[in-house]
Amino acid sequence: MHLIQRPAFNLTDLISRFFSTLSDTFFHFIHPLTLLHILSAAVILCMGNFAEALVPLTLYLELPRYVFSPIYLFAYLLAFSILAGKALEMASKNHNEEPLSAEDLRTYRIGIALLLLVNIFVVTALHQVYKYDDLEIHIHIIQISTAVILVLLPLCGLAFLQNPTSTSLFDPRALMRAWRDIGWWRYLLIITPGILLNLILPPYLSSRYLPQSFTIFSPDILLSIVGFHLILFACWLLAILYPTCYYPSADDDDTDNTRDTGDEHKNDSDAPAPQGFAARLRQAEARIRAGDIAAACALLSPYTDAQHDPAIYHPAYRRLYPIAPSDALRTRLINAAISGSSESYDIIAADLARLDPAQLPPGHILPLIKQAYIGRDYASVLNLTRNFAKNHPTHPHLVENYYLAALALAKTGAADKALPLLQQLHTRYPDHPQAEQIRRAVTQLQGSGQK
To answer: What is the DSSP code string of 165-229?
Structure first.
C-alpha cells in the first residue's frame, strides 16, 4: 500500500514570499512617477480644503451636517481616482505585462470615482436616517466605510484586468471570482495590514497635528495639512498596492477561463481559450526553442500588425522580427524608433548598420543616427550617412548628419578622417546653427592631434 505524502507546511517559503512581495511593493512605491502621483493627489485634496476654507459654500448652501461640500467632494474623488488608476497601471504590468490603454485607465478611474461616490452616499444616508449627532459614531462609520473600500479596491482592480469594463467593478460575481483567484484566506491576510495602517495612523496624526478649524494659513498650518495628506495617500496607496502582488498571472486567468467555460464549449472544439499577452509571449518562446517557427509567428502576429505600436508591443516585435523579418515590420519599427522608442531601435540596430540608406526617406536619417550615436552604435551612424550629400545635396539635415558622422569617426579612432570632414562643414556652412559646435569639435580634434 502506498501512502500519499502531502507537502509539508514550509514556513520558510511563506516568509520568503512575504518579503519578496513587500520588496516589490516598496520598489513600485518609491518610483518617481508613483511619488509624483501621491504628491499630485495630496495637492488636489489640499486645494479642495483651502478652497472650502476660503470660500465656504455652507454660507450659501444649507448642507446637512457631515455632508461633503461640492468643492471638497470633487477634489476627493479626483485625487483618489488618480491614485487608484496608478495602482491599476502598476498591477497591469505585473499581471500580464500588457500595457493598459488610456481608454481602459479612464474607464477604471471613472468607475472608482462612482464607487467612492456610492460609499459617501451610504454614509450620508445613514446619518440622515438615524439623525445621530455623536461625532464618535460618525467616525466609527467612516472607519467602517474606509475598511469596506480598501477591501473592495484590490478586488475591483483584478476584476477589471480580467474583464476591462466598468460593469465588472460593480458585478458581485466578478468580484467574488477575483477573491477566489487570489485565495479566500490569503486575501484577508494580505489586506489586513493596509486596513489597520489606514484606520490607525491617519486618525492619530489628524487629532495630534491638524487644527480642528482654521481661518488663516500660517506656514505651520500649511505644512501640517500638506504633510498629513501626503501620509494619508501614501498609506492608502500601500493598502491597495500590496495585494496586487498576489494577483494571479495571465496564464492562471487563461487556465481558469478554460476550466470555467469548458461545459459551455464541450460541443464546440474550435472555441479558442482566452490568451493574455504574457502567455502568448511565453508560448511563442517555447515554439521558437522547439524550432516551430510557423506556430511562433501565428502567436505573435496579432500583436505586430499595423494596429499595434512597436513602442508598446516591442516584446512581440523583438521575438518575431529575427525569425520572420519583413519590410512591413521594419517600417513600423523604424517609424517607432524615429519617434523616440529605443526598444524599437534596438530590434533593428543590426539592420541599420548594413542596409542601403537610399531605401529610407531622407528625413528618417537624422533621428535614427541620433539614437545610434547615443547608443554608441557608430557603425550605424556611418552607414546611414553614407552618400547622403550625393543623394540629397540640399537637404536641411545634411550638416547635422555629417557632424554626427564626423563625431562617430572620431569615436572609432578615425580622427584623421573626422577632422577634414568637420573643417569642410565649418568652411561651407559658417552660418549654420551648429557652426559653433563644429568649430569647437575642430579645435578639440586639432588639440588632441598635437598631443
So the answer is: SGGGGT-HHHHHHHHHHH-HHHHHHHHHHHHHHHHHHHHHHHHHHS-S--SS--HHHHHHHHHHH
Sign of the CA dihedral running 354, 382, 345, 400: negative
- pLDDT tens, N- to C-terminus, the chain (451 residues): 333 333 344 455 556 656 666 666 777 677 788 888 888 888 888 887 777 666 655 544 455 555 566 777 888 888 888 888 888 887 776 655 556 677 788 888 999 999 988 888 887 777 767 666 666 776 778 888 888 999 999 888 888 887 878 788 888 888 888 888 888 888 888 888 888 988 888 888 877 777 655 555 567 777 777 888 888 888 888 888 888 777 775 544 444 444 444 444 333 333 333 346 777 888 888 888 888 899 899 989 888 988 888 888 888 899 999 999 998 999 999 998 888 888 888 898 888 888 888 888 999 999 899 888 888 889 999 999 998 888 888 899 999 999 999 999 988 888 889 899 988 988 998 888 888 888 888 888 887 765 5
- Cα-Cα end-to-end distance for the chain: 87
Instruction: Compute φ and ψ for 290, nearest 5 degrees.
Output: -80, -5
C-alpha dihedral over 134, 138, 139, 145, to 10 degrees?
A: 160
**Residue 98 to residue 109: CA distance in whole angstroms:** 18
The Cα 92–Cα 324 span in angstroms is: 29
Place of cell 449627532: 133
Closest C-alpha to 420, from 409, 430, 411? 409
Q: Which of 387, 419, 391 is nearest to 403 (CA)?
A: 419
- Taking every pair of C-alpha atoms in the chain, what is the biggest distance, in angstroms? 95
Q: How far apart are CA 28 and CA 49, in angstroms?
A: 29
Answer yes or no: are the C-beta atoms of 202 and 234 closer than 8 Å: no
Could you tell me the pTM of the whole model? 0.52
The cell for 49 is 480644503
DSSP conformation class of 448: H
Residue 308 has a CB neighbour count (10 Å cut-off) of 16
**Torsion over CA of 111, 112, 117 and 119, rounded to 10 degrees?**
120
**What is the dihedral angle through the alpha carbons of 285, 288, 294, 297, rounded to the nearest 10 degrees?**
40
